[in-house]
Amino acid sequence: MFDLEESPGNIMDMTEGNSLHKSKHDTGSVGNTDDGQKYDSGGVSYDFSCIYSKDLLPAEDGEEATKHFLQELVNILMAHVSKSIKRSSKVLDFHHPHQLKEGLEGFNLELSDQPENLEQILVDCRDTLKYGVKTGHPRFFNQLSTGLDIIGLAGEWLTSTANTNMFTYEISPVFVLMEEVVLRKMHTIIGWKEEDGDGIFCPGGSMSNLYSVLLARFHLFPAVKTHGMSAIPHLALFTSAHSHYSIKKAAAVLGIGSENVVLIRCDERGKMLPSELNARINEAKIKGLVPFYVNATAGTTVYGAFDPLNEIADISEHHGLWMHVDGLLQECNQLCAEYLFQPDKHYDVSYDTGDKSIQCGRHVDIFKLWLMWKAKKKSQLAHPLQGSEGFEAQVNHCLENSEYLYYKLKRRTDFQLVFKGKVAPKIKAKMMEEGFAMISYQPLEDKVNFFRCVFSNPATQREDIDFLLDEIVRLGSEL
Amino acid sequence: MFDLEESPGNIMDMTEGNSLHKSKHDTGSVGNTDDGQKYDSGGVSYDFSCIYSKDLLPAEDGEEATKHFLQELVNILMAHVSKSIKRSSKVLDFHHPHQLKEGLEGFNLELSDQPENLEQILVDCRDTLKYGVKTGHPRFFNQLSTGLDIIGLAGEWLTSTANTNMFTYEISPVFVLMEEVVLRKMHTIIGWKEEDGDGIFCPGGSMSNLYSVLLARFHLFPAVKTHGMSAIPHLALFTSAHSHYSIKKAAAVLGIGSENVVLIRCDERGKMLPSELNARINEAKIKGLVPFYVNATAGTTVYGAFDPLNEIADISEHHGLWMHVDGLLQECNQLCAEYLFQPDKHYDVSYDTGDKSIQCGRHVDIFKLWLMWKAKKKSQLAHPLQGSEGFEAQVNHCLENSEYLYYKLKRRTDFQLVFKGKVAPKIKAKMMEEGFAMISYQPLEDKVNFFRCVFSNPATQREDIDFLLDEIVRLGSEL
């Protein structure tokens, strides 16, 4: 059953080199290992230069070519994964848009009417990764990717191979049930009974927030679905000044109007001030608006602050408002699929019975999380020996990293609050051009531009934080 | 550089069997080839039973385990791809929800707090595919997946490995430019100048349609964004009775109200009647509504009918309405990413400058299409020898299949219009239980339940159509 002659070779080699022939566009970097040494991939090398997409499955006799093609792709992907994690490699190889568009080293983004052979397709794949950003690199501190999780990656590869859709049990029996299982598990963790919760995974946090406003509006004014906003009173909704801008966006999209989103002042740590909330609700009522919704944030975008949920809940209950918690769950964020929270008092999600989503078809987002959940565990305590990569441990590692950064910053004399906020952008620009680390910055209220260090990448260690600080000092001193 | 000792073995074997040990949950089917023969995968077998997620990258020394794990996964995926395409395999192995939930043959969907070892994770992956639907099977006639495209699959694997997001050039330089290139190419094809078009890829046709209504509303009444629907007149929009329900859904979500969507009558072929459209627009005006939007469908959901675009455009222009064409482009549909059309007279997409999408972060949908476009070509004429798998040829093959079905149906005496519409559901239920083919059905207006055969799978040949017809007759005769 195993025929060595048919093997495309060294599937274990994770350097960038492999058996690809030099393409017509290639100027030399492809087909070589990092140190420039050329080799074939350990046996019979396969010539992709006369094979085209049409020769792959479902073409008759396409199985052999398909195997070889996918195997070669996997070699390229594995090389990328391996390189991404290495501190000696750059986080990015920065180029300006016009440079990339000009076709750097033969990497041609343009589409011609001629089909490319599979050799060129594989070179295109390698180049796409080469000129991209290695979001899994230990020194990628930028938002939003949180490192490459191999189990999650496996989940994505399988999902795309299964190539189906979430709209019916008929075509997605397993995935539909997995979504139910995972949602029920999440409900249990936050203390809901099985029958209290419902939900779907949707494409990102902004969509989740839009759903929450939509549900609240329908719950309180069901006529809006058929008759529209003209049939219901003027609405007002409330969120903290530090919350994500998606709440305003949702109000604009849903026809409520962005100016009817009232931003509540925060304390100096970025937490919503409950007294302010109460005052603004009363103010809105006096103006003739109908307050109907409060968004509380558990982890604000910039400071990571947690609004005082209990106090907000009391105020919401007092005024009869729907309270939504934008829950920036670590494991969900990582998947670009945030769970939609509703307060348990409003569990009866009756909106659009039969089809829960705004979309009709829906991408299968669930398998990745389900598989990661199977492979990791919730808590370190349940099985101490294998706990170091559980979700909880992963989050704790990130928190330890941020404590370490704080500790180091307090002790260093070469960092101080910069004025006018022009330093951070300049340092970042130089950092991106050199490509050894990546971090984001922004201003907030009266604060000037400051670096915002995101810890979510499990690959990041203390040495990377030290490197980052030294790098900022070095680049800053050259200004 | 190629060390045979380190090779996990037969990467070329695409049967279901491989080197996985039997898991504690496994009752025997895993680890065997289809004919039950057991083997190791051609060399050193790797023991995944004592390896956990924590042992994979970014763990120190995690590279070796990562390579082996991903390679084993790829073996499983390749076996699935190979099997999916084989007519001798079932399209699906049907089970009711309660059966799957009970943990069929040890396939346990539930999440425990214990981490599973990678052997079990791989078994879970195999089982997930085993109990799913093979949407790439030549006899999968059901909506909506259109066969598994190997280049598209490669694109998805790379996209998930790159693990980034579309929100900035900073973190997605290559993908952001690819989106621009592909959109510009699409604009050129439909006859727009470069500077006339703009757009984004979004998660599915329903979202695209929602965007179109959103843009039209903002274009005509920009105040709606900040002030909401209460600041603008009562709106009405128009779409054919055979169009996709997402237009109604969009009106509900956007606060316009689903009852303000006016459904226009169609002719017997499912095309919108322009005279009806004109009459209903006038009627809405008399009622005090403000008509602002017409959706014309190029390929309706059930009949695949094309609305008379030119006549609708004339009427829209006369009344000053925004005309949107729901373009069911084959290549886009296939990707769950439909391009958003706007009429060229309204090209100035000024909505939400700076961030074009409702979402903030956005999944990278573009690479798959870009890569497929590179690998196929637009037209058969440009390069006759390699044209048989171009997009155009692929669509033509589907059209030929549907002509063939029509031809056969006309000649067969054992098919006729059924009454009461109870036959199709019964035949489909039996078909799914047996699992050798899959087709959808539905009623429409005065028509009873009828089979709806979707031709979009390049794997489907005439023999599959013959098989389908015979199967329907066979199952029907047993009722």
What does this structure look like?
2 copies of one chain form a homodimer. Chain A is an alpha/beta fold and 479 residues long. Chain A is built from 15 helices and 8 strands. Residues 1-43, 329-354 and 379-388 of chain A have low confidence and may be disordered. The longest helix of chain A has 22 residues, at 63-84. At the A-B interface, helix 1, helix 2, helix 3, helix 4 and helix 5 of A face helix 1, helix 2, helix 3, helix 4 and helix 5 of B.
Please trace the helix and strand order of chain A, writing H or E for each element.
HHHHHEHHEHEHEHEHEHHHEEH
- Structural class by secondary-structure content of chain A: alpha/beta
User: What's the quaternary structure here?
Assistant: homodimer
Write down the domain tally of chain A: 3
The largest sheet of chain A is: 4 strands, parallel
CATH homologous superfamily title of the largest domain in chain A: Type I PLP-dependent aspartate aminotransferase-like (Major domain)
The chain pair forming the largest interface, with residue counts per chain, is: A-B, 156 and 158 residues
Q: Provide a count of the helices of chain A.
A: 15
Report Rg of chain A. 26 Å
Give the terminus-to-terminus CA distance of chain A. Answer: 64 Å
Mean pLDDT of chain A: 79
Q: How are the strands of the largest sheet of chain A arranged?
A: 3-2-4-5
